[in-house]
Amino acid sequence: MRLAVENLHASLGAARIIRGVSLRVEGSRFVGLIGPNGVGKTTLIRAVAGLIPFAGSVTLDGNPVSALSPRSRARAMSYLAQGAGSHWPLEVSRLIALGRLPHLEPFHRASAADEAALARAIALAGVAEFIGRDVLTLSGGERARVLLARALAVEAPLLLVDEPVSALDPYHQIRIMEVLRAYADEGRTVVAVLHDLSLAARYCDRLILLDNGQVKADGAPGDVLTPQNLRDTYRIEALIGGGDERFVLPVRRVE
User: Fold this and answer.
1) CA-closest candidate to residue 181, choices 30, 3, 2, 27
2) Would you call 45 exposed, middle or buried from its count of C-beta atoms within 10 A (0-12, 13-18, 19+)?
3) CA-based angle 142:147:150, to the nearest 5?
4) Which domain holds residue 171?
5) What pLDDT digit, counting tens, does each position of 10-63 carry?
6) Residue 246 lies in a domain
7) Are strands 158-162 and 189-193 parallel, antiparallel or unpaired?
């Protein structure tokens, strides 16, 4: 899958949020979209998913997203919104099975391939213990993991996730980042909006730092998470560790 965004502009109401963003992502990559609150991360990922109007171009393998049929788009990309929830009392396995709808022919039962995809998603997200339960009986963090399993069940070449670890405890934050890393390592592209800079530095191949609706920096984590970029965009000073266990520890605000 080749994702190409060219000169993208997007607004919310009268406010211009994204200002001329261009980027390309291809192949087995885990890309983190980072930046302070309000700089356009969610707006950008929703535009890529074709959920809001925009000016510019978004293509998948050279085909405009706007020209794809809803079913083709749903097969090509899977999207998990920030704070996604479930408002109906569905049994967990039935909720996860909704991820296979783009692949089902009308009036046909799930195939062996569909069942295998569901089993892989359940195992990858680590939610087998919830099978048989009503999703509304789960905690917010448990529900977030089930909804991620639904997104994984699509097995789309492009997975878009918005703040996938925000509702989780530290153990499950690491678990979900490992899941997303594994999904990318299987030959797919993952683009995730992230606020935890240490997790972004440790698990992502590439970080795209947004500021004021534009790309401030784009590259390997060590090239993006520099003291100067953190001062300019987040207005913080931080301790930055390298190696396999990279971390970013904010220590003070910069006025």
Assistant:
1) 30
2) buried
3) 135
4) 2-221
5) 998 878 899 999 999 999 999 999 999 999 999 999 999 999 999 999 999 999
6) no
7) parallel
The sign of the torsion formed by the CA atoms of 189, 27, 97, 52 equals positive
Q: What CATH number has the domain bearing residue 196?
A: 3.40.50.300
HSE at residue 96, side-chain half, CA atoms within 13 A, is 32
pLDDT at 107: 58
Burial class of residue 179 (count of CB atoms within 10 Å of its CB; 0-12, 13-18, 19+)? buried
Nearest residue to 51 via CA among 75, 22, 16, 81: 81
**Considering the domain boundaries, does residue 250 fall inside one?**
no
Domain assignment of residue 33, yes or no: yes
For residue 162, being part of any structural domain is answered with yes
- Write down the residue that tokens 């899958």 correspond to: 1
Mean pLDDT in residue range 100-111: 78
Which alpha helices (DSSP H) does the chain contain, by range? 41-48, 70-76, 92-97, 112-125, 140-153, 170-185, 197-203, 221-224, 227-229
- pTM greater than the 0.90 cutoff: yes
Domain total of the chain: 1
Kindly report the length of the chain.
255
